[in-house]
Amino acid sequence: MSMFTEANKKIENAVVEGYKKIEEGVVSGYKKIEEGVVSGYTAVEDKFIDTFLIHEGESVEEARARLGGKKSDKEEEK
Fold first, then answer.
1. Whole-angstrom Cα distance, residue 17 to residue 8?
2. Residues 4-18 pLDDT 10s
3. What are the sequence ranges of the domains in the chain?
4. Can you tell me the distance from the alpha carbon of 58 to that of 48, in angstroms, rounded to the nearest whole number?
């Protein structure tokens, strides 16, 4: 009976390792896609703010802070 138990443990370990590899691949692929989408959206958002919403002499970060009601990095340092 212990021979069957040992064989089952080996199979179990192989299956678990296989699923872990699949999981790591799926998660890393998702993270790459997520980073690409977020960086693409941020680039479009920055261009929109720069084109339509920025005041003269204001940076994109300052305009974003003004529009979002958040303090910019420069204001937080004061």
1. 14
2. 999 999 999 999 999
3. 2-77
4. 14
